[in-house]
Structure formats: structure tokens, C-alpha cells
């Protein structure tokens, strides 16, 4: 995006200086506002033109049957798709008789700016209508972090030079027409669902609509109220029908005068509560917002973000693009998780309809670990959502003939929604991914209440799954056969190393936690024999190794397969899954996204330094990065094995994924995991941070271009600030009791009084590794 | 079925002595008549009641989109389903005002008999109407082997005791209502297609209808003409509308008189020919049939079958059930292939809508090898059908990124119709299966014209597929990874031994044939280098072996997997695929149907006798036979390794599959491969016949129950008769030049003058092997 002439790179905001319709849908994702409960795409106030109109409420979805050419036992019957709910963003303007539409007339200037410190989206327009009237329009929009049900817009319009009659229509619109879905499987399904109206109401400045979803029966309330400033002659009308509530303001405005409209918007939904209850709920939220007022909401928003940045900011010198990108990334990750409150963090947050609004494994492996160290309360909430789905996950495990819980590969409400099991049900690692996020959160926070109530049952039920999924053979190896690891170009493989290491951790931590909460574990049916069975399986976990190549195979048979014919694969044949059949991909050595590399990132102690270097060198020429999830992990391991320039390039790819639209589908929503990956590529990559087994360690190493890097993290109730320069790193404890960390393997004790500055040892410069032709980092 | 009290076991017919509505659909399959071009299910003449009404024309199908929950590159877009065409079997009878319907009134007697020597289905009924009139009805039906487009029915009705008014309606009915499809994936898809009428015509005794299929645009003609005998007062009316042509006979009939109606029925279809051309075609066929006459058609039918049985009959003493079953089997296999004439032999022949009327690999591996030795011209025709599909198969290979031809797993018209690629596209062995059938046919017949025109291109294009699918690794092993073998409970495995042996044969024979037809091969683009590449790949073909267990693994990783938990699998959980997900099945050692066992049957020289015994002992407790394809191969290998009583039990299971409805889906059509398997279990099993590399060898060994077995086979233009008793076997050449065969490894020369009687060596009695609990043979 930075390459686009419309954009400037600013430290604390994303600024679009000119409107380009060809990237409108992409900017709607980038300028999306959310608090994790409400999500509003950055659609223009006047509704049109749009790429994809989008107003979302976390977990409001509709369901539809999954069709199969050949069905089989255990296939999920219904899919879930995020719904575009009642759109409260719309404020239409008519200048004399002319609708304000930037596609007509003359657009003198148009700028939009997402302010990462204030948490608001500003827009400024100067426009002359086809009839020749010139107006200045500005709007400021926020979705409140502090008042979960509330969004607000301040909309101002003034005439230039001549008096004009303005008509403003502020609306709630249900059942908007949506563009038809694309062929790309990553975009959303076509939903023909219509919300059914239960109530519509408009009087004076107030409008309320209650609808419900026909199949899932979710009741959705939307309400708006307004504060209007303008000439004394201004009149206000209100009307409503089943799909629209509209407040109309009409006024003759003189040059120097303006109309200023504050629109408060409240949303609520429930699967249980009645129509009157939902009505009252949104009206009540509106009342509180009106009392706080527009300025009050902005103040609260700023204060919330000041607090966040004070503990999570990353500062950078030398690469202002990455500086912007990492703050943009943290801001959106925060938006996705801040007020989810026991609801999921979807792959696209609430920024677009991509992947049908589903949540996958990457929330636990990419997003939650970042939030654990920057905004941990969101992690506890997101994992409590998983905990709330245990019933469905246990039912699914039973259906699959397994014990414990089998979490869905993709879901909104807990049921498996994938119509292709080799890349979903078989990717059992999602269960250990959830366990990993639990373990990482517990190690980083020491949150005992969470551990007891939420962590223990999640660990126990997932450990049970692994114990029943694998088996110990005659050689005393615990094998996990026929599963799919993170690399989706290899499926149904035996002993995927990532999966086996994760399952090992899962079972060990389940055992250890069950022993600590003996009584509570007993209530879950855990006895000593079961704990021993987990420990034995973990102890005997089979981790294949290719003695001939001296590398760790991604899975047992991987290195025996033919290497993909990269030389005869054209640049236009990526991503491969859109141009080659699975039957071809699965048989070859080709890596869609980091798999063994990710294992080396999460299990830093399971591989020697030499092994890591050899493995990285082996997989690098096989990895095509047909997924936004890959670059961050490659950045992390590249940095670790001394491939610093390569690490920097991967860092840039990870950082600029959405701002540059590197995956060509930012229009469907931002990639939350890739955004989190930007932070990881910086902090775990060139920052060299690892946290395994509760130990914080650092091996920082800056690439040439970055002269200074500072980041803050939460750990064990403390806030740390780490400052890295080319030749030394300084570790500071900002609050809390003294703490021991490791710098290049050496233990150092830091306290609020004593920071430590340590030299960064010299590192041998390795020859740069190469990627498949045409697949070098995009940064 | 033999167990059902309604049935008697006769040597040369299948007799149902009493009508049981609960097995009506099953009997419709068993009593189906076909010549490979037309197929008529054994529906009652009066149309109702019925299980599944069925009138089929080979390759008349409709197409519909295949839906996917998650689509991906290379998935087939449309499926093909066999159509129930215009039903010409219907002859309704009204006795006074009462329709003849066996569900009402009193059924005094009802018998049906399929005569395997005459090729006709006879029915005799004595019925009293609810109003008290008693009638005798009989019908005889045939589908002509000699006049491909013709079926005929002789229908007779006479009053008992009192004069009666009869109304007979002889009809052609298009767009019959069909029962809704079942959940079982093996039954047919729901087709809501309606045939569109282009012409309907009825005058005097003649009726003609022309329809076409809406999507595939196939034009179907059906015509009927009648010869009527009856009282002088008899009147005839004719009428037609878009879905029906009807001839109505009305007569007052005295006791001692009768009405006799000969109905000639003609079918024709084309994707190209015009309505008038199709009309004329069926009228012409009718004319020829009328000239031949009813008695003439019966005579031709009998003569055709006499000729068939004289070269293909199997005689048996000691087990009259198997005697009946093997003739029933041969009769239906003949019916499926006799007049296919470059059209496929579907899995269910033309006996029902099961598997959507598709043709799979089992035609080439189970059906064609039997026809090769009993009715070889049908084999050449069926393989010419494959040859005609080369264009689509080459296109499919290109789509899959492969060279040569990739034949569809299931199809009617040549396009892949499977919506589940791991069990279809990945089952590449179908390509070598076709090559195997070609090789086996060529070795058995020496048909050089076929070899040059049809065999060579089929061998070349399939060899090309294998060469591009596999690869030679650093150790000089040619590997074929990620494919699915015959055992559909293991998919996407590396180096499936069956597949690799078949691919090896395929490439070797392609090379050898291409060298013999040098010029013709050049025209196909084959050069010496390509031939060498096939030979090298075949030479280096990797055949894994488990040194620890001393068994041949079904595929490279198979024996490393966990053994299925048979002890905790209930009898009601079979077939497993209806009760367990693929993700569970694929990870375990459990065999749906013979895989490595089938490899040992087809490649008798690739395994030592000891290895075969060890392998059989290993796989026997893992094989659940959730497929009708399994028992025959297990019978063959059980006999070879000395498990004679077990071989006999498998022979009985194979023989009685459809007559007993052992798979519980005979209602959807007969299992052609299992019927052929009955012959194979006898002839290759207890008869010990093998033909590999053009050599005929025998190791006969009768089970105790069978005191005598004689069978005839065609080979190299000769007809052989082999007679086996408990302690000796006699080999006779019925015609042709002297020929060398092998009896227990010893070469013997037989001629039309000299038969040879050889002693059967004593064999050590092995302890009986056991199957998974509850899965011992059903015979």
C-alpha cells in the first residue's frame, strides 16, 4: 500500500491522501474499526461506492447445509457464515438535489486517516457537485473500546461560497445487497439469508431495529440516536420500515455555517433474550453513550489506547515502514481481541467476510501468543471461548471414535464447518495449538484462577484426544499416523514433527496441571493411571529423523518424496493450490507454509543450533509461502540461524502483508495472524525473544537497516522494556519484582532499579539461502 | 436367497415359487434381462408394485453439477447418472373393472423363473380379483442377444370358470416416478431430470415415442408393436400423449379361451441422429423382429446361449447351490457384456441404478478376465470403449499435471464423476488395470488387429502416466507416492505394492508392444528414449518389504500403523465406512477388500510360495470384506496356500453374494464383479488356474464338498475342458492345435487326440486362519 501514490507513511497513523476506487475494498479492510464485539468496515459514510459493505457482530452468523458430491460418515452437515448485520454507518448527503457521490462531480480532495493512538478514523472531503455546488465534508468514526456496544460518528458538512440546501439521511439499513462471492475458496460463501424484521421504530432522532436470523434464530438489535447542530431553520424527520430506519435533516445553510451531526450507534444480540429485552439493551447502551458524549467517548478511547501502548509499543529506527506496520498490526490485533469477551478472534477479526468469519488454529498459534505478551486479558477471554465449546468438541471426538475433545478446524459457534476433512478434521494439531496457547498464557501470567477453571479442562480433554489418536508400537514409539500438519500441501502424513512435539507438550502439561489440581482433575475423571498414560506417551513420542540427509523430516515420509518441479512452475501458477490438484501437491516435497520451521520456533530447545541451521537450509528452497502465515516464522528462524538479511526481508513481508496487499485478498479482511506475525518477526525474530517452559530468553540481532529497536512485553505480572542496538541490548524492568532472564544463554537479573546492558556477540555471516524461483520474500 | 423359502435351487434356472414383497426389489435385479445394450429389470408386467422400476440403455445418462462444500482445483464439475428410459415392459390387465394388482384380491400362485439356457424370464400367476373372478396370467420375456435393439414379451390371460371382460393396456411410459434415493452412498443419486418429448405416435398395434435428455441432449426412441390372438369380438385402440403410448385391447373371453399378446419392443438412441432417423431406426428394428416372430426370437436366443455354454459352462458335483450360482453368474456377466459393442460394462451391468450406472476398475480386473476366457469378443469391445475415451483421459492427465492418460475412476461417458478424489483420482491403479485387461486379452487371444489398433495406444498412454507419476530417487528406486490402492480403507499411501506391480507390468508391456509396432508407436510420439525410460522405471520399481514381520506391506507404511480395534467393533458397525470416518480408517491397519492378496493373485510369480502363505496369514485377520470384490481373491489365495476349507467358504460367499443379498444392496443391481468373482473363485481358486505372461498353469485342489468340477476356457483360439476330481485332473483340448500347459509346475502337452490325466499331489493341511471377529465368510 505504501507503494501506492495515495499513501504516506506516518509513525502513528495510516493516511490515504487520495481516493483510488481500484483499492477501495482493500482500504475498507485497512480502515476497519472494531473492538472485538462490533466490527465496522471502512465503508464510505454515504454507503456507495463500496467494495464490500460490512458491519459485523462477533458470533452473529447464519447456517447453511454443506453440499457433498460424495458424502461420508462424520462429514459436517452445516456450515456457518458471518453475517453482515444492520448497517448503522450510513449517512447520506444531498446537496441541493444532487446526492453526494464521489463518482460524480469533482473531487478536489479526499483523505482518510486511521489514527492508531486515538483509535479513530478521520475523513476529509472537498467536492463540487455536478450542478456546481462545492462542499466540505468531514467525518470522524470510532468503535468504542470502553463501551462495548457503542460506535459513534461525527459528521460535518459546510457549503463553500454559496448558500445551499442540505438534506442528510442518517440510517440503519438491514439486508443490504452484497456483491456476489468470488471463486477464490478463501473468500466468503454466498449467503442469500435475509434477516427477518421483528421491530422497526423511528421517532425524532431515535431509530431502533430488531431482526433475527432465520436459521440460527439469533436476535439482533441496532439503534441510533443523534445530536444535531446547525442553522435554526433545520428540521428533523424520522421514519422506518422493515429494513430501514431513517432520520432526515433538512436545512438551508449559509457559507460559514455548517451542520454537525453526532450519531451514536448501539448494537446488541442474543440467542436467548426476547425482542423487548434486546430493544431495551440497545436503548440503554445509547443512553450511556449520549451521557458520555462524543468528546467523552473520544477521551475514553485515547486513554484506553494510551494505556495499551504504554505496555505494548514497539519503537524502531531505520525503517519507518516497519515502524508504521508494527503499530498498525498491534492496533488491529488489539481491535480483534479487546472486547471479544468469551467470543472468538476470527482469522480476519471483524474486518471482512473472508474465510466466512471463521476462527482457525492461527488464532492460538499466531495471535494469542502476541496478545499474551501485550494484552493478556484478551487471551484469557479467547480461551474461555474455547472452553465454552468443550461440549461440542467432545461430541465431535466421540463421532470420530476418539476420546477427549476434537476442536473444529473452522467454526464460529463450535461445530466443525469444513467440507474438506483432509485439511481440517485431519489437522488434529489445532487441539494441541489450543493447549499451547493455554500453556503459554499460564507461563506468562501465572493466572491461577484461569488455570484451574479453564486451563485444566482444556489440557485434560486435548491430552485425552492425543492419547486415543496415537498408539505405542512394538518398538516403544508413540506414533501419530495419518494427520495433517501446518503445511497444507502435505496431508494425512505419519508422525508430523510439529504435531508430535505439540501433542507431547499437551500431554505433559495436562499431566503436570492435573497433578497440581488433583481434586479438580478427579472431578474430570482423571486418575493416576491416565496421567501416567499421558506421560508415557509423551516420553515415547516418535520424532522421525532422516539420517541420510541429517535433517528433521516434516513428517516421517516427507524427505522420501519427489521434490516439486519448481523450475517448471510459472510465476502465474502461485498460489499452487489454485493451479494444481491436491493429489499432485500431497505427493511432493513442497511447503505451503512453515511447518517444521514453526516447530523450531515454538520448541527452541528440541533442536540443536546446528540442526536448526541444517533444517532451515533444507526447507527454505522448498517453501513457497502460499499462505500469509509463513513469513513470520521464517523470519524468526532465519534470524536465529544467522541469515539476518533474509530475516529482515521476511520481516518486511510479514509487516507489509496487508498494507501492501501481498496476498491479494486484503479486500476480504485483514490477516490477523499475519499482523500478529509482524510483531513476532520483529520481537522473536530480530529481537530474539523465546519463552519456552516459562523461561524468557533473548538473542537479539538487528539487521543493518534497523538501527534501533525497543519493545515492551508483559511477563509474570511485570512489564519489561528491551532496547536493542546493533552491538548491545539493554533490558529494563518497568515494574514488579526483580526477574531473571537470559541473554545469549547467560542468566541476568534485572530489577526496576537495575537495567542491564549486554553486548551482542559477533556472528558469522552465512551465505544467503535461496527460495524456490520467484518466491523470495516480497518485502 | 436360497435361504428364502420362496426359492428352489435348480441347475439351469433361478426359480421363485412364491412372491414376497419384502424382496421384490432384490428379485427385480436377479430377474433382470439384458443384452448389454438394453437392460430391463424384472419388474412385474403390470408395473406395480415395484421396488425400483428400471429400463436402461447402455450409456444413456443425464448430467448434473457436483456440489462441493470446499471446492479445489481439478475437482470434476459434473456427475453422470444412468437414466430410467421409456418403460416398454408394461402390460396392465383389468379383469372386469378390477385392475390386476397382486396386492389386492387373492394370489393363489405366483412363480417366476429365469431360464439360463433359454435366456428368458417366465411368470405364472393364478389370481382371484376382489370381485371374485379368477384368472390365469402368464408372461414370458426376453431381451434378444441376436437382435440388439429388441425385447419381446408374450403375455397370456385366460378366465377360469366364468366368462370375463378383459382390458389389456400395453404401454410405453416415459418419465415414470422413481422411489427417492437412499442414504447409502452406493445407491444412485436422486435424478429429477425429465425426458423431453419430441414425438409420440400410436396407431393400431404400433406405438412410437422419441424423447431427449435435457442436458446431455441424447435422443431416445422406443417403439412397440403387437401380435394379438383372442376371441373374434376383441377390439384394439391406440392413443398417445407426451409421456405415454398405449394400445388397449378389450374382449369378452369365455372359459377355455384366452388372450395372447406378443409385444415386440425396440429401443434406439443417439447423440447425433435426428428425430426422424431415430424413429425410423426403431421402426426398422421392430420390422425385423416381427418377421423373425416370437418363436423365432426364442430359437435364436437358445441357439446363442447353447453356443455360449458349449464353450463356457462350469459343471459341479457336490454343491448344487454353487452349481446354480456359477451359471447364474456367467449368464449375468454375459448379459452385461454380450452386445455392449464399444460401450461400457457398468458395475451393476444394466440391472439397476446402483453406483449411478458407473463403470469402475473392477470391470477390467474382475469382469473382463473372466470374459477373456469365456467370451473374448465382449472384452475387445469393452476395451475399445476405453480406447474411445482416450481423449478425455489425456485431457484429465493434463489437468492433473501428468503425462499420458488418466482414466476416470467412475464414469459413463468418459469424464471423471467422483466427488471425492482420495478414493478416486488418487486410485491411479485404474490405468494399469485397463492395461492389465489389455495384456491379459492379448495373451489369451493373440488378437493382433486389436493389439495394434487398440492395445498399443492404451498401453502407451497409461505407461506415460506412470512414468510421470512416479520418480526415481537417489537410491535408484522408482517410487509412486501418495496414491490409493484397491483397499479403500487406506488412501494416499506411498508405494502401494499392487499399484507398483501393475505399473511395472504396464510400462514393460507398453515398451515391448511399442517395439513390435515400431512405426505405429512412432506415430504416437514414442521414441527409443521413452521406451527406455519405461523399462528403467519398471526395472527400478520400488516394492517395499517389511523385514521385521517378513511380510509384504500393502504399502510402504502400512505395517507401521496401528491395527484396527476389532475387539471393540460391533457387528452392527459394518460396513465400517458407514460408521467410522475416513480419518480414522485411513490411519489403521484394516483392509476393506483384498489389496496385497489381489496382487498375489494377478502376479503369481512375483511372490514365493512361502511369502504368499505368510502374507495371507498376515492380512487375513485384518480384512473385513466390506466390499463384494474381496471374497473371490481371498478364495483364490486361500486355495493356493492350502487353506482349502477357507477357500471353499470364500467361494460360497462369492457365489451367493447376490442370490443371498449378502451385501444388502442387490436391490440396486447385481454386482457384476462379484458374479465374475464366483467363476474366478472356482476356476482360479479350487481350479488353480493362472495365466501370467501367456502361460496357462493349473494347481487344482477340490474342497471336500465338491466331488467334481469341470470348466471350459478359451485360450489362444482353442477351447479347453478341465475336469477335476479329488485326486486327479484331466486336461482336454476340444479344438485347435496341440498346446502346452502346466500342472503343478510340470509341463504337459495336450491335443484334441490326447487328453492328460494327472494326479493331484497331497498337500499339508494348514491350521485354519481366522478373520476379524464376526467377519468370517458368509457362505
What would you say about this model in short?
Chains A, B: The active site is at 488 (proton donor). Two copies of one chain form a homodimer. Chain A is of the alpha+beta class and 779 residues long.
Radius of gyration of chain A: 27 Å
End-to-end distance of chain A, in Å?
12 Å
Which bin fits the share of residues in helices of chain A? 25-40%
What structural class do the secondary elements of chain A suggest?
alpha+beta
The level 1 CATH classification of the largest domain in chain A is Mainly Alpha
Which fold name fills CATH's third level, the topology of the largest domain in chain A? Glycosyltransferase
Keywords (chains A, B): Hydrolase
Binding site for substrate (chains A, B): 361-362, 592-593
InterPro entries (chains A, B): 6-hairpin_glycosidase_sf, 6hp_glycosidase-like_sf, Gal_mutarotase_sf_dom, GH65_N, Glyco_hydro_65_C, Glyco_hydro_65_M, Glyco_hydro_65_N, Malt_Pase/Glycosyl_Hdrlase
GO molecular function (chains A, B): carbohydrate binding; glycosyltransferase activity; hydrolase activity, hydrolyzing O-glycosyl compounds
